[in-house]
Amino acid sequence: xxxxxxxxxxxxxxxxxxxxxxxxxxxxxxxxxxxxxxxxxxxxxxxxxxxxxxxxxxxxxxxxxxxxxxxxxxxxxxxxxxxxxxxxxxxxxxxxxxxxxxxxxxxxxxxxxxxxxxxxxxxxxxxxxxxxxxxxxxxxxxxxxxxxxxxxxxxxxxxxxxxxxxxxxxxxxxxxxxxxxxxxxxxxxxxxxxxxxxxxxxxxxxxxxxxxxxxxxxxxxxxxxxxxxxxxxxxxxxxxxxxxxxxxxxxxxxxxxxxxxxxxxxxxxxxxxxxxxxxxxxxxxxxxxxxxxxxx
Length: 296
What we know:
Layout: E1 2-3, E2 10-16, E3 22-28, H1 44-58, E4 66-70, E5 75-79, H2 86-91, H3 97-111, H4 122-139, H5 144-156, E6 160-162, E7 171-174, E8 177-180, E9 187-189, H6 191-208, H7 213-227, H8 231-250, H9 261-277, H10 282-295
Antiparallel strand pairs: 1-2, 2-3, 3-5, 4-5, 6-9, 7-8
């Protein structure tokens, strides 16, 4: 057995079976492994399985195959997939624009799937609304009302089934394109959150590795083009993106790779004015980000 890294909310273990197969056992934790006191319902494991099975009906190649489930113990078993993580590729400067566009297209198709059986569950509030948005609002009184308004909009939305954690660390670079992992925050909500959540990481990685920022910006544009959000969704995504930029330096779960004060200050220097100005498009956010990076 090998413990697999990459998360704070679950035990994830690779197991080699007697028949030669390698599988992954994933168990949701009631208390997350972070410095802050952060708890979430372990029943979210069942939501993840439901999301994987929903996507598998669209295309089984877009998700790992669920092999077994034990809801009482909040765990399930899935096939092990020997593909690299997209985050690792991006950090190394391996920025595939076509892959980013395909991630956007697949995400849009998933969001178009009927939402039967999903609710706006407690785990999304515990894992995203409170630790990312509301916690950050408490730390920034000057934009607190704006962030709380954005949070309320997401919490009340009933538009589509969203993944809730669409990040490069949760996307494998499969032989046939993106494979989505870690959908434990899946629920009925606003798909704009998923789009903004992923785009956020493409911007932040440009601070982590400024030498790759131009390519990451191109990937940002390709993912948006691949998804092709309508104007209303793009505006909601832009607002969420500004809030999530700030949340990933001042929320309960800051990104682990921005370790210097100057890096975090740069993110704040862009995010706070964007929250005050309420950008109407994702391109406006990206342009503001470019200006901030070029002048700091």
